[in-house]
């Protein structure tokens, strides 16, 4: 407690309200960021490389540390999935948790999957090709 | 938006009357003011400003329902108005705020979500766009240090501390320093003191000594409010601010009461200036 004025938690810049989450998250410094290249497929290591950009700005906490809850600023959207794809999600989340050595939210994984796809349309092109797009 | 919590560890120091009258002073200065009443005592700010009629109604929507994600209507419908002051009144369910917030936290954890029970007032107010609608936010928490106080301080980050100039009062300010220090570490925030306000000052030598000691400790004491028991009792009897009481319920103006009103205006202005100057 000090005399005078301090932070405004209502300020528009979300960075001023970036209290660390009180949940049990592992120290991000301790996360080995390079080991994704070891066993992962090509797609996954690409994804890991591009993930850092929001966290590297000085003075700004990475997204998961800046939010108050996992749903903050997110809209719930219904998506249509075939069983074989949906069944693979828990496995993917588990795989990512093993790599980070910490709890990873399914909600984050799902949005990251879309974000990666937006950054790598070539990967999507290949997958959609498998599904029959581009057949003359 | 200027935001602060009026808080004292010691009870009966005029916390609620100070909060209500500072709110009125802000309205007089032409500002849009919202007061959040988190104190479930019968003699609450909601009672003082005569907006407490739904506090027992279990069908009524309440701020706590919004804080645990179970609102029954839009935030705007929680707001009542008295003497130009917008107020979110206290509802009796706030007594159980801790239980409900903890339960919601556990439920969130079961679904793999995070829910910080200390940050929900800030979330509700931000989502309602309160900082875009109002110039001033004043929170009146209960005198006990519980989850409602944590929410209040997390939301405003600033406190105004009423205190009775006595040995007990002096200790209460020091005790508050420790309490807030603990909260700061707990919530990872920094809390600023906008003013320490001696109330019920009677001009005694030992009272002056305590004021001097507090100033030596580095606290800003912009005004000293003298004992005005008959005016304050009148406010509670008529359920209004001191400004309205003097204007409408006194048959003649008393200079010492007008002087107290001027000091309240002065205090409100001093608080506004504090937050305009970067620390």
UniProtKB/TrEMBL annotation, chain A:
Residues 9-24, 43-55 have a biased composition (Acidic residues). Residues 1-63 are annotated as: Disordered. It holds the Pfam family DUF7970. This is Uncharacterized protein. It comes from Halorientalis pallida.
TrEMBL record, chain B:
Gene3D superfamilies: P-loop containing nucleotide triphosphate hydrolases (3.40.50.300). InterPro entries: AAA_dom, DNA_Partitioning_ATPase, P-loop_NTPase. It comes from the Archaea. It holds the Pfam family AAA_31. Residues 6-180 form the AAA domain. This is ParA family protein.
């Amino acid at each position: 407690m000090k005399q005078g004025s301090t932070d405004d938690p209502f300020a528009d810049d979300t960075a001023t309200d970036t209290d660390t989450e009180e949940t049990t998250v592992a120290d991000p410094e301790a996360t080995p960021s390079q080991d994704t290249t070891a066993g992962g497929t090509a797609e996954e290591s690409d994804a890991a490389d591009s993930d850092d950009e929001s966290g590297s700005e000085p003075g700004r906490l990475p997204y998961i540390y800046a939010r108050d809850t996992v749903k903050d600023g997110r809209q719930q959207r219904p998506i249509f999935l075939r069983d074989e794809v949906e069944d693979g999600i828990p496995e993917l989340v588990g795989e990512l948790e093993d790599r980070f050595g910490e709890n990873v939210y399914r909600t984050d994984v799902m949005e990251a999957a879309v974000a990666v796809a937006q950054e790598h349309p070539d990967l999507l092109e290949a997958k959609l090709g498998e599904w029959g797009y581009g057949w003359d | 938006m200027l935001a602060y919590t009026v808080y004292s560890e010691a009870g009966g120091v005029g916390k609620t009357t100070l909060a209500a009258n500072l709110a009125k002073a802000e309205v007089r200065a032409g500002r849009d003011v919202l007061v959040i009443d988190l104190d479930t005592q019968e003699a609450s700010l909601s009672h003082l400003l005569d907006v407490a009629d739904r506090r027992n109604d279990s069908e009524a929507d309440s701020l706590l329902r919004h804080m645990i994600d179970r609102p029954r209507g839009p935030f705007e419908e929680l707001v009542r108005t008295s003497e130009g002051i917008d107020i979110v009144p206290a509802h009796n369910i706030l007594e159980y705020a801790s239980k409900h917030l903890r339960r919601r936290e556990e439920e969130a954890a079961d679904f793999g979500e995070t829910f910080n029970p200390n940050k929900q007032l800030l979330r509700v107010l931000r989502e309602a766009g309160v900082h875009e609608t109002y110039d001033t936010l004043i929170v009146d928490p209960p005198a006990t240090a519980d989850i409602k106080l944590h929410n209040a301080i997390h939301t405003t980050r600033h406190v105004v501390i009423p205190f009775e100039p006595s040995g007990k009062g002096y200790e209460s300010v020091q005790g508050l320093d420790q309490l807030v220090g603990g909260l700061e570490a707990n919530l990872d925030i920094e809390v600023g003191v906008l003013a320490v306000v001696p109330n019920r000052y009677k001009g005694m030598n030992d009272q002056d000594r305590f004021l001097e000691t507090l100033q030596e400790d580095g606290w800003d004491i912009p005004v000293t409010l003298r004992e005005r028991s008959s005016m304050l009792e009148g406010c509670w009897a008529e359920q209004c601010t001191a400004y309205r009481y003097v204007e409408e319920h006194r048959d003649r103006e008393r200079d010492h009461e007008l002087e107290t009103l001027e000091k309240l205006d002065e205090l409100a202005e001093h608080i506004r200036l504090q937050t305009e100057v970067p620390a």
